[in-house]
Amino acid sequence: MKRRTVLIAGLLAASTAAATACAPGQSTGSASESLVIYSNSVSEGRGDWLKKEAQAAGFALTFVDLGGGDVMNRLSAEKNNPIADVTFGLNNVYFEKLKAQQVLEPYTPAWAGDVDASLGDAAGGEFWPIVQEPIMLVYKKDAYASAAEAPQDWTDLWTKEQFKGRYEVPNSLGGATTQMVLSGILSRYADPAGELGVSSEGWDQVKAYFAGGSRAIKGEDLYARMVKGEVEAGQMWLAGKSAREKQYDIVTEAAMPTVGVPFAVQHVALVSGTKKAETAKKFIDWFGSAETQGKWSKEFFTAPTNTKAAALADPEAITQTEAFTKQDIDWTLVADNIDKWVEKIELEYLKG
Amino acid sequence: MNGSLRQLLRSPLFITVVAVVLWFSITFLILPNVNLLATVFMPEGKFSFSAIERLLSSERAMDSIRNSFILAVVLSVTVNLVGIFIVLATRYFDIKGARLLWLGYATTLIYGGVVLVAGYKFIYGDSGFVTKQVQNFFPGMDAGWFSGVFAVVFVSTLAGTGNHLLFLGSALAKVDFQTIEAAQMMGASSWKVLRSIVLPTLMPMVYAITVLTFLGGLGALVAPQILGGEDFQTVTPMILTFANMPSSRDLAATLAIVLGLSTIILLAVLNRLEKGGTYFSVSKVPASMKKQKIENPVANVVVHVVAYALFAVYALPPVLILLFSFTNAAAINSASLSFDSFTLDNYLRVFTDYSAMWPFLVSIGYSAVATIIVVLGLLFVARLVQKFKNPATAAIEYVLHIPWILPSTMIALGLIVTFDHAQWLVGDQVLTGTLVLLAIAYVIGKIPFTLRMLKAAFSAVPDQLEEAAAILGASSFTIFRRVLLPIVAPAAAAIAALNFNGLLDDYDTAVFLAHPLYQPLGIVIKNATGEDTLTDATALTFVYTVILMVIMGITMWLVYGRGVKLGAPRRRRTPSTSNNPITPPSLEAGVKTTRELVTVGTAHNQEK
Predict the structure, then answer these.
(1) Which among B40, B245, B267, B411 is least surrounded, fewest beta carbons within 10 Å?
(2) What distance in Å separates the CA atoms of residue B522 and residue B542, rounded to the nearest whole number?
(3) Which of B118, B245, B430 sits opposite A343 (nearest CB)?
(4) Domain B49-313 grouped into CATH 1.10.3720.10
(5) Are strands A35-39 and A233-237 parallel, antiparallel or unpaired?
(6) Nearest CA in chain B to A348
(7) What ipTM did this prediction achieve?
């Protein structure tokens, strides 16, 4: 027993020493210049690709891959001791909240003149648009005889009997895409006198949406469930649709509602308090440039906001993006209420 | 009472210990939690109870609370049924291949949490290996059979029997065999012996394990999340959701308080019951237990069949995880095994790619550091509270139990709220965003059972030893270092090993506190098993799982392996008389110590 005790103590001590000795960030070249980037848009190979491209351009990057809500929570928790130098990928709603908490540092990138600044923070200059993406209702093409029989708008899902139980509804509301979809539905029923700025008719719609849907299953992708035949429709963003069609080998179509679809605009911003501000600014200049955004688009099927990047981008991604009407959403209403909306839905309408 | 307080004040060693404990408790246990409660319930300096109203009007919240209690009650029954059966099958009855059976049943000791649940889903889920095989024979079978309350109870039951295996097994070893022999000579049937002699002796232990099973069911997180479907969601996932939404954290705190209060009430009630309870006497002249043949041939066959069926259920997931860890993503996705999909690439990738290996090093590092700190630190504290029984030490003990009442998520949030700005208690440092904070949280989380367990170990040390040393002129530090420490060291090592295992795949705490560049394994595994992920990471998860099992297996072997009596598949012929406090001399002390041990065991098993 004594030997065993010594062994356990020894192993513990050794593993402490081993693990504290070496961090991967520091092993790659000039550690001091390596930028830490928080993003919800580096999964599915995007981070690896960007790291390689950035290396060629002279930047060493370390990504922290988190969901939209987690990126925001972390940035605000670390406000007084920031680890991140740059963040990108979040949409307006999140960035407005970060701005309100004074997490961001104003910076006007070199490419500021090539984008529509009003998509971002035109007044404060704290975050700048890089990519815009329609948030869509997608359905499995061969599930319906013709496009006319497929759902045409979100409201069809719960008002028409044939779609009931055949579409996926989220099982948690923290994701950026989910919140976009909810904003798109609820903002149609804006009513200053209603509960949380939405009329009771609007809440009935959301209630019906969740009641009639098939709850998403943790650990299973929407497209995996479509392949299995459990559901035929659900929410997706444009680049995600393209990647998943390849991966799951199925064809899906997106509904084109007459009111339009919510557009998520992804932004990039400098984190306030970063110790590598100069390198970080250079990176933002490079990342949002027409050339980088064009390559990114070709690789990951996105529509860049940089007008000069359009010529270099994947033409199909731009065509498909432009095919959608941008839904007219009162973003102030959304930013003021989205947290309360999510809480209400979590408590009252979500299944399980 | 006063005398012992005066004594305490005369010892410089213990004054230092008290000072450190006070600082630590105020800084890391009281302040953060008070802070958190203040921010969520008094955002504008005024008390608000709207969270309670909002929860009461939510059908979903009420359902989840009800489901948590249902799960706790159901598990208390099922875990005991299965647990007692596997202990009897491996330790009491003469079953062919009992040692192999034991190894199969023990697999849930070397993996847990999200890894275990995901593993069971991979095997029994709608596109799982077993489901597919069965469907070949019964095409009409419902592929989605493995979900909802049944699946949650099934998985949690199997995952929860580890305590029985470790602790009920050792209690069984203390049953007086002479009484059994006497009963048999007087013509009692094997059923009668089991019912009238063996089971009553085991009851105190069963009772202790039931408490922990109940609490585990109440706080269940991963199993309902992954397998519960829309009909069976519980409270803890909801706490996690609301904790992640800054404006809804009052809901998370309220739900956490509901769970905390239930825990306190349950423990209080059980403490009372326990005080009035009777313990069954056992001989202190133990005759070694001989395995019992089941005389009734039908019963014998039935028990054998059930034992091996259970073995298959337990052993299949880990075996298949091992097999599939050698296959490519396509084979894993389709859950089909074939020779041409076998590959060593997954392992090569983990062992050659530094970034794939990194989460492991981080997890091992954090677990080791936290374990060393908590065990070393509490060695002094445990001695203090065990030796000096006065109101001051009693208060310290209560405070150190706070982490047991609050879910780790809430503790993590409290730390963030308190240390995201300069705090004079920690030398005006901002701790959020540093490596230290997660280590502190891990230490906090492991305090209650480490303390209880070490206290039990110290109480097994005879007073005379210390008195003799004192008479010979040894200082209190010398006594501690040269007399007490060597005696409790084996127990401390065992606790350290179990703590270490328990922290290896942590997710709840890390998701809030981990330094973004030092993300431990739990986060990586969770990310890989979440929705919205494409599947490249799946194969890697399997490799991580296998390596985790190996590490945990080694740790368990070091603690309970060859030569140590408790929990070992091969028992010594005669009970050891070593000073190992895990095998205490009498049952009264035994129940007490094993109760502490069970706590540690649950810590390891709780699917947090």
Answers:
(1) B267
(2) 13
(3) B245
(4) yes
(5) unpaired
(6) B58
(7) 0.81
